[in-house]
Amino acid sequence: MTKSQTKNILLGITGGIAAYKSAELTRLLIKQGYSVRVCMTQAATQFITPLTLQALSTHPVHLDLLDTQAESAMGHIELARWADHILIAPCTADFIAKMAHGFADDLLSTVCLASNAPVNIAPAMNQQMWKHPAVQNNVQTLIANGVNIFEPAAGEQACGDIGVGRMLEPSEIIDRLAITETHSRQLAGVKLLITAGATREAIDPVRYLTNRSSGKMGYAIAQAAQQMGAEVTLISGIGCLPKPSGLTRISVESANDMYQAVLKQAENCDIFIATAAVADYSPVQQNTHKIKKTANHLQLELQKNPDILATVSQQFPNIFTVGFAAETDNLIQYARQKLTNKKLDMVAANWVGKDKGFDQTENALEVLWKDGQCSLPTMPKQQLAKELLYLVEKNYRNKDK
Ligand code: CTP
Fold first, then answer.
1. Which of 50, 134, 275, 391 lies in disulfide reach of 218, CB 3.0 to 4.6 Å?
2. Residue that finishes a domain, picked among 125, 159, 183
3. CATH code of the domain covering residue 116
4. Which carries the bigger pLDDT value, residue 336 or residue 401?
5. Is the per-residue pLDDT at 1 higher than 50?
6. Is residue 2 pLDDT above 60, yes or no?
7. Is residue 159 annotated as part of the catalytic site, yes or no?
8. Cα-to-centroid distance, 260 and ligand 1 (Å)
């Protein structure tokens, strides 16, 4: 394990028996070169004394949200800004629930909300509690919110049960942290352009043609790329997803608007990921007045829209291009055809229809490139976005070799 450069880590300790391992964890973090500040919940202080953690971290332990003395030294907002990483170990079922629902009723939960540092948690609890759907649902929410979970290990528990729920050993937590850190800046300095969501093709001022895409996958990729250090521009079709912080979003309506916006931004990008479900056709005639229902039959003449992705790959051959393929059958075959026909570097293919793909929170992808392929199994779209970006990054770096 290599020593990290000095980085600030906030170690959150919540009230579980595994809190006794936090002393060793603090020692190992310092050995790794981290500057460590400890924040404990009231329950945690029942398991291990703040004095022990103060001695090991060489800094006063942060305990209370409404402590005027502590706030004047380093208040919760300063603490939140100071942290490059937040690690909560052990993290109880109660604290997982708090984080999942955005509670801010103690210092640690408030700091988690007020910080944009990556958050890692090492859950520890009774095996039955860990299995409970309420806990698992909360864990899924945290994953969706970008929190890294250092999943508990199986084994004998303090309560005598045997099963999954034991906190990882401090040395294993350090290893997991190192892996997370490696990925966390993988796209630093890379300019990434992403299209997301559905386009709307106007028929008249009140009606339009569109599709079922929610934009969730594209937004998840944009957010994950930004967290991995990329400079992200998101060109988004119509939708109501909130703008992820820290990136540029350009909102467009029609396929043609998206085409114009992408070509304007493409000159300045290294990777282009086209997740948008761009309408293939748009009405030839856009009525400026609302069409009245006087006719018994109405024919809509459609014309083909420009292919944004194919245009980028043709006009900017140096850009690493990633396309998406949503198919109801022959997934791999059609995806490979897209890779070749549009001269792409990578295609991420997924099944659609029958509750798959569009507007779902989870998805699975078959990722293909010229001489390789990788299956990413069903997982929350946020997690899937990260896994896809690891593959994109690896192939992008190999492109000119
Ligand atoms: N795409 C694009 N511009 C378009 C159409 C599609 O950039 N006008 C991009 C999508 O964002 C996606 C990929 O191309 O990355 C999808 O390819 P496409 O050929 O549109 O897929 P299908 O419409 O499913 O193709 P087909 O009808 O041939 O199955």
1. 275
2. 183
3. 3.40.50.1950
4. 336
5. no
6. no
7. yes
8. 16
